[in-house]
Amino acid sequence: MIIQLHPQIPLITEKGPGQAVAMIDYSEEHNLLWVVILDDGGAIWTLPNSKVRGFPNETMGRKAESIE
User: pTM to 2 decimals?
Assistant: First the structure.
């Protein structure tokens, strides 16, 4: 299933920050895949859940976390 995200979700990826424009869900047996347009240069990447993070938000108690 492909879901278009509206509004887009800002994410931090191993390739740099970007905007998630869609999500691909193959089923319970697979990671979600995020379709992200990178802020720097506009390259489009599809990345698994383990390679993306939400932006830190102190108000919500979400601290920065590195992507390994």
Answer: 0.85
